[in-house]
Amino acid sequence: MTLYFCGHPFKYELEGICKLFFPLIRFTHVFDPEGPVPEGDFVRTIREKGKEQTRLCAEVSLGGVSRSRAVALPNTLPEYEKECERVLCVELYRLLSEWLGIQPSWGILTGVRPVNIIQRERAAGHPDGEIARFLREEYLVSPEKLRLAFTTADVQSGLLADLPERSYSLYISIPFCASRCSYCSFVSHAITTRKATDKIEEYLALLCQELELTAQVAKQNRLKLDTVYIGGGTPTALSAAQLKQVTDAVSAYFDISSAREYTIEAGRADTITREKLEVIRASGAGRISVNPQTFNDDVLRRIGRRHTAAEAVECYRMACEMGFDTINMDFIAGLPGDTLESFQHTIEEAIRLFPSNITVHTLLIKRSADLFSEEGIADYVKTNVTDGMTAFAREALLAAGYRPYYLYRQKNTIGNLENVGFAKPGAESLYNVYIMDEIQTILACGAGGVTKLVGGTQDLDSGKNPIERIFNFKYHFEYIDRFDQIKTRKEQVTDFYENQEK
């Protein structure tokens, strides 16, 4: 499909609207074309500025049939460019929604963090009713999503106010898994492959070096450790001895007594053993995850998981018996082969187990996932079914006493839906809130890690704190081969904080 942009620079947002309705379709981009539009499927957005008014038009051609919508705006509007972009998005959304019978419930919002809009508007002194009207009427957000976003913002407000000054979170990447799930698009390698087994020991040795260097940099810049998060991948894909190598390095180089939270993703049931849980307990980590994704064994087999629902429950109960009282369980709405009834059973079983945290993700559809080379995308884009799954989970978890405390969205999720972390009151993950809200520095170690440096002084124009990102190499073999560059990049942390103090 070809996207034509005529008389305006609004590619990013308008392409985002197209992706809501045409997931995984490859787009060709053409700017200010000359001559007639060629035949074929296309979306064309046009801005024509006259002496007093600007005409905005969205036109779509599918299968030889064309439809369009147009509106005029005065040239004297405040924030003229921003309003032209928003109105073009609205017109394109309404055209495609009416034509295709699909109505994404977040409207034209394509950003990752919709809750941040509420927080920002509240901070500016706007009442909730005005904020809700703005999002509903100007961004077409549904009443259900508004309620979810406002409830999440309410829960977050206390957590955001309790941020220690000059604090940071430590993220550690273990980019290995027991096997690669068919829906996965993350940077991870099955630990049974030669690419992983031949490199694990070397990777861990260098990771421990990076941890030592990171601790030195943090101390040099007078940063105080607040939370620790070891994720992946699947950290428990490592052996107990290898996992201990990492946790021992954390204990040796960092003052974890100052940390308010220490999380290790235990993850998949086929990687969890009592010995590994003992390593985690001894490390001082108080939060873990046991992630079934579904309690439907047929779906587990279909996505390539090498465990059963019963084994996931057994791992959860073992963790409870060993004294872990803050356990998260992850589930995914929209997995291949799942049905609304099956997903409802999964959520009901999760509530019966009553872990402190339950996270409900929506299936992410990416070309890099093996899933989409196996079956047609049409079987997965079931917006109404997946929306029903997330709606059921939301209402059932609220009724059971859980509260949504963090929410984020990703491109190419089925139905343009969201991922939501629910928790019992008092069991919310600080790390998850801070990384979503981008208010705390995160020092990241390991392959694929992204250090995010957050300054303490807000920009007067944007109202946001300055942010700088430092990227580690994406794959573990790159990380190993170019480790000298990883070490050099740590100097950027000191440069950032020195500039902040000028």
Explain what you see.
Strand 12, helix 12 and strand 13 form a beta-alpha-beta unit. The strands form 4 sheets. Strands 14-15-13-12-11-10-9-6-16 form a 9-stranded mixed β-sheet, sandwiched between helices. A 5-stranded mixed β-sheet has the order 2-1-3-4-5, covered by helices on one side. It contains 18 helices and 18 strands. 41% of the residues lie in helices and 22% in strands. It is an alpha/beta fold. Helix 7 runs parallel beside helix 8.
Which ranges are low-confidence, i.e. pLDDT below 50, for 5 or more consecutive residues? none
Helix % is 40-55%
Give the distance, in angstroms, between the N- and C-terminal Cα atoms.
50 Å
For the sheet with most strands, the description reads: 9 strands, mixed
Strand content: 15-25%
Radius of gyration: 24 Å
**Multimeric organization:** single chain
- Overall number of strands: 18
The main sheet orders its strands as 14-15-13-12-11-10-9-6-16
Specify the overall morphology: globular
State the secondary-structure class: alpha/beta
Mean pLDDT: 90
The number of helical runs is 18
